Known about the structure:
Blueprint: E1 2-11, E2 14-19, E3 25-29, H1 36-48, E4 67-76, E5 79-89, E6 95-99, E7 107-110, H2 116-119, H3 122-136, H4 140-160, H5 167-203, E8 209-214, H6 222-231, H7 233-239, E9 250-255, E10 258-259, H8 260-263, H9 266-278, H10 281-288, E11 293-296, H11 305-315, E12 321-325, E13 336-341, E14 344-347
Parallel strand pairs: 3-12, 3-13, 7-11, 11-12
Antiparallel strand pairs: 1-2, 1-4, 4-5, 5-6, 8-9, 9-10, 13-14
Helix pairs in contact: 3-5, 4-5, 5-6, 5-9, 5-11
Amino acid sequence: MQIRWIQLLEFRNYRTLSYRPSAKLNLLVGRNAQGKTNLLEGIAVLLVGRSFRTPRLAELPRWGSPSASIAGEISRGDSTRTLRRTLQQTESGSWQAVGDHCEWARAIPFSWQDLAILTGGPGARRNFLDGFAGRLYPSHLAALVQYRKILARRAVLLQRGQADRLAPWDEQLATVGTELLGRRRSAAAALQTELARIYPLLAGGPQKVEIRYRASLEVTEPGAFLAGLERRRREELRRGQTLVGPHRDDLLIELDGVDARVYGSRGQQRLLALALRLAEVLPVAEATGTPPVLLLDDALSELDAPGRASVLAELRAAEQVFLTTADPAFPAADGARWEVRAGDLVAA
């Protein structure tokens, strides 16, 4: 998949921008606070309808503007699709997003905030895995929203001590929770296969990396899920919360047999975070029938020279890539170079 052109209007610090990117690597160079990340964010909103930086729509339009719009043309093989998305403020003051949807459009973003996958709590790893699973399985994110609503309702009943009213909610939780578990395990297995190939290439040596999904309930069908809930019923009523299920799970990441979250060096964790995003590319391409667009925000600045060279070599196999950097001397002989200046873009 490729973006042929994109137009931003009143989006972040871009009053107006028309951009025709290269079909392969696009290097976006500029000082901080010029709009490099904003452009990547605009591309993500065009392709998938949401930002990778914030869930708050009100942050996306240019300051003081009542609306923002993004349009663009994307292609896959011989077919093309024009997408348009508009962010607008309603009479009540809230914001809404409307626009076109493309079932095969995918974007994989990376920023150094992704280091939280290694250094943050279990929620950061669950969010990462659910984002990846959502790119593989279109129904996953909707099921996740449904699961959280069931959890919230169940928590109210537990806090009120109304055990006699839990049964229908337990059944829904078990059904949806088992679906989530299955897709998460499949997603983790796909990541394992690719990460085992990519990380040693980036690290420049034979290192064993392993991902394992660690579940609070090792179940594969709703009946076993229900039995797990029943075993913890008394404790759940005492604490007023659901104690087992996908919302309590974690992702274990090991490097050479030890927990990379605890014992990995800062450099190893940085490289692992980037490798995890690159490991998404092939499974997503196979699931959708087209390679995703890569949005890499300052991905190489904290790597040494050999690490940078290894990542750039891996990116040659990708289709369309957008890579930002604040280094004006950054080498990218294989790609198009663009300079970002205060909400404007010029070929460098």
